[in-house]
Every structure is written in C-alpha cells, then in structure tokens.
C-alpha cells in the first residue's frame, strides 16, 4: 500500500467546484444588490426644462451607473467574505494547502466577477428598457447591444475588470483581518483619516490619484494591463499574508 500525493491542479479543481456549490448565497445577494441599484437608478439621473417660443420641453434621464456601484460594493464584501473562518474551513475539507486554497478562491472570485460585471451592464439596459414605458415619449439609447455592439461589449469588459479589482481588494483586506483583528479598526480609521490628510501625489490627493490612475485611462489595452498587474499584486500580498496564519484556528 502506498500514498499518492494529489496534484495541485486536481486539488484546486475540487476546491473550486466545491466553492461554486457551497457559496451560492453570494449570487443571491448579488441579485438583491443589483435590484436595489436598478431601483435607485431611476432617481439619480439629471433633468430639467427648456423652452422656445410656445414650446416647452421637460426632460429627465436615468443612469445605469447605480447597478455597477452596488455590484462593486458587493464584490468588495464578497472578497472579504471568502477569507472568513467558516469559508476557509470549508476549503480544508480537502487535502490542500494555502496555495491551492488561494488559487481556488481567486478562480471563484474571477468567475463570480465575470457574472456580476456582465449582469451589472445588463441592469443598465433594463433601466433603459423600463424607461420606454414612462410618460415621456422621447428616448435616446446609448451603447446598446444591437445599436453599438462593440461599445456594449467594451462596457461589459470594463465592468468585469472593475469587479475583479474590487473583489481582489476585498480579498487582501480580508486576509489582513484574518491575520489580526486589529486590522479592521485600523482600516476604518484609515478610510476616515486619509481623505482628511489630503496626501498629495503629483498635485492630486492620494484617493484622487488612485481613481485617476484607473478611471482616466482611455486605452482599453493599458486599462486591462493595469487591472491585471494590480490584481496579481493584491493576490501575491494575500498569499504572503495567509501563509503566516495557521491552517486552522
């Protein structure tokens, strides 16, 4: 009789499939968050009135940004949730190590982010579709699947990439929280203090510089590279942090 050591790819595959079956609740919470975003999307647009002679035109607009915002919040919280003790203990139902756990978690977050980012873009289309049945007769479509498919799929890809970024950020934050419970109050304090300090980088405060680094990029290729490099760095940090924790607490 002899023992065989399972291959890393086999362990990762089993853990990934286990996460898909065990963590279905995160997708239910995603739908709830996006429904809230759709509802709020009707009240966050601009509006006004213009007149010329005897003609007066009242106009209002709805935005598809709110479902994306709520999806990013969901992705960040999901990244933290995957690192919690109960979720980590589920992973060790298999013969595994920290590396396989982190890889399977990354694949799960990536899979969930693709679904969430795609649905977030489609939620914006739902807002436009419902707007057709409102009393205002004039409706201008922007970047629809049929009217402008390239722009539409670019929006989907961008939404997915941002979702992956926020999920990765949540994962690294959760890893630090699992390392020490003091990280959470320090994180909350940093969120409050950093904007007040207005640390400048190139004439912009720290938060504005980070937002500008991603948000002002006009090249899809460079934006993709920025996201990939940042996500790899975040998960490398997570792996380094989790190797310092015990296999079980």
TrEMBL record:
Keywords: Membrane, Transmembrane, Transmembrane helix. The keyword Transmembrane applies. The chain crosses the membrane at residues 20-42, 68-87, 107-132, 152-174, 186-214, 220-241. The keyword Membrane applies. This is Yip1 domain-containing protein. It comes from Sporosarcina psychrophila.
């Amino acid at each position: 009789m002899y023992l065989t050591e399972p291959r890393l790819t086999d362990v990762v595959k089993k853990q990934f499939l286990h996460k898909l079956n065990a963590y279905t609740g995160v997708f239910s919470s995603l739908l709830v968050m996006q429904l809230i975003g759709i509802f709020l999307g009707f009240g966050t647009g601009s509006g006004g009135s213009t007149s010329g002679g005897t003609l007066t035109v009242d106009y209002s607009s709805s935005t598809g940004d709110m479902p994306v915002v709520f999806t990013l919040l969901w992705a960040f919280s999901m990244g933290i949730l995957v690192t919690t003790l109960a979720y980590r203990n589920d992973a060790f139902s298999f013969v595994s190590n920290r590396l396989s756990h982190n890889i399977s978690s990354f694949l799960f977050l990536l899979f969930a982010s693709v679904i969430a980012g795609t649905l977030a873009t489609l939620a914006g289309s739902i807002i436009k579709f419902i707007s057709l049945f409102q009393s205002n007769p004039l409706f201008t479509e922007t970047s629809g699947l049929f009217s402008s498919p390239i722009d539409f799929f670019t929006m989907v890809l961008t939404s997915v990439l941002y979702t992956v970024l926020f999920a990765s950020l949540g994962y690294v934050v959760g890893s630090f929280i699992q390392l020490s419970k003091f990280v959470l109050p320090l994180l909350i304090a940093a969120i409050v203090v950093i904007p007040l300090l207005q640390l400048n980088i190139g004439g912009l405060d720290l938060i504005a510089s980070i937002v500008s680094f991603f948000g002002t990029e006009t090249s899809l290729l460079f934006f993709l590279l920025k996201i990939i490099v940042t996500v790899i760095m975040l998960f490398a940090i997570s792996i380094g942090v989790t190797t310092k924790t015990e296999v079980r607490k």
